[in-house]
From TrEMBL:
UniProt organism field: bioreactor metagenome
Organism lineage string: unclassified sequences, metagenomes, ecological metagenomes
Name assigned to this protein: Uncharacterized protein
Amino acid sequence: MTECFSVLAKCGLDVDCNGGLVGNVLGVIQPVPEQWASPLGDLLETYLPGKAKLSIKELAGRTAFLAL
């Protein structure tokens, strides 16, 4: 995953969208490396009223449940 992001960054252009797409695909195929996950601390901060802070693990579990 790290190598893919490195190549994307070096290519330039639409790096944010391409990185988001590649990250989603690779995150489904293999676990996210600890070096990328640990700085987030299982916390997603949003602007949603009443849901300003969410657990990433809980959100992923709820999403997977709805997908099944």
